[in-house]
Design goal:
By secondary structure, the protein is an alpha+beta fold. Helices cover 32% and strands 25% of the residues. Strands 1, 2, 3, 4, 5, 9, 10, 11 and 12 form a nine-stranded mixed sheet that branches. Strands 6-13 form a two-stranded antiparallel sheet. A two-stranded antiparallel ribbon has the order 7-8. The longest helix is centred in the C-terminal third of the chain and has 17 residues, at 136-152.
Length: 182
């Protein structure tokens, strides 16, 4: 169904962003439509795929260690994000680039999401369910919140071992491209 909506919007010449309204701050507001969670840092709102700005969350295949047990921490992260997205006033404000076009990341609109005035991106980091992304801007925005969550052992930081998502992804790429001989 979502593919059909995207094709219809494309055929009508809608850029996806045209179907939403600009806020006073110049951002594009994504509020209308069914909300589906793709990942801990990616959601669909209607026909728009949204990447939460400045945060990174564990991958679906990533495990966290609690004692000797591997825990599927990805599902725990999804549950927390689901709680936010189920709020009646959940919405995302898409970022606009210097070229006046919506910022995108791999085809996803880059946005800061909210429940009312509560910034969801920051709340996920403060609660320990997301990391500040591995960029200078994200570290400036959310680095202190991540450090405080880690010190308090909140969310993912409560586990004995959890890798930062970008390290996990890099290791997965390296191990899959290894032409090692035994």
């Amino acid at each position: 169904m979502r593919t059909i909506l995207i094709l219809i919007a494309y055929c009508l010449g809608l850029s996806g962003a045209d179907a939403q309204e600009r806020t006073d701050s110049g951002r594009i507001e994504f509020r209308e439509g069914e909300i589906d969670i793709v990942d801990g840092d990616t959601v669909w709102i209607g026909i728009h795929q949204i990447r939460l700005h400045g945060i990174d969350t564990v991958e679906s295949t990533q495990q966290c260690l609690s004692g000797l047990d591997n825990v599927g921490c990805h599902e725990l992260t999804l549950d927390v994000l689901r709680d936010f997205t189920e709020a009646e006033d959940f919405h995302c404000d898409g970022h606009i680039g210097n070229d006046e076009k919506p910022k995108t990341n791999r085809g996803r609109y880059v946005a800061t999401c909210y429940v009312g005035d509560l910034e969801v991106n920051r709340a996920l980091v403060e609660q320990g369910w997301a990391f500040a992304a591995n960029t200078v801007e994200a570290r400036e925005l959310y680095g202190q919140a991540e450090a405080e969550a880690a010190a308090a052992r909140r969310g993912l930081h409560a586990f004995d071992s959890v890798q930062k998502p970008w390290i996990y992804r890099r290791e997965q790429r390296e191990s899959s491209s290894c032409s090692c001989e035994n």
